[in-house]
Design brief:
The chain is mostly helical. The chain contains 4 helices and no strands.
Length: 101
C-alpha cells in the first residue's frame, strides 16, 4: 500500500495505477507500457471527461478496486455516473487517502 503525499502526487500516480491495471488485466502487453503511459499523460488532464477515455463501467469499477488496493481505502458506492472528470476521481480518492494518514 502506497499513500501519496499530496494530491498532485496522487494525480501522477493514477497514471501508473491505470498502466498497471491494464497490464494485469491483459489489455496491454508489457511491451506496450511505455507507449500507453505516454498516451495516458496526454489524456489524463484534470478537466478531461471520463467519457472521453472510452472506458465502460467495468473498466471504471476495476480502476476503483485497484485504487482501493493500492491506497488502502474504501471507494464503495462511487459510480462513474457520479464522477465526470479525471479531477473528480482524484478528488474522491484524495479525500479518502488524506483521511487515513
Amino acid at each position: 500500500m502506497t499513500k501519496p503525499e499530496s494530491r498532485d502526487a496522487l494525480f501522477a500516480d493514477l497514471i501508473e495505477l491505470v498502466v498497471e491495471m491494464l497490464v494485469s488485466e491483459r489489455v496491454i502487453s508489457n511491451e506496450q507500457v511505455a507507449e500507453t503511459r505516454q498516451q495516458l499523460k496526454g489524456q489524463f488532464v484534470p478537466d478531461a471527461a471520463l467519457s472521453e477515455l472510452g472506458w465502460d463501467s467495468m473498466q471504471f469499477a476495476s480502476l476503483l478496486v485497484h485504487a482501493e488496493d493500492r491506497y488502502g481505502i474504501v471507494l464503495g458506492g462511487l459510480s462513474m455516473f457520479d464522477l465526470f472528470t479525471i479531477d473528480d476521481v482524484v478528488n474522491e480518492i484524495w479525500a479518502r487517502v488524506s483521511q487515513t494518514k
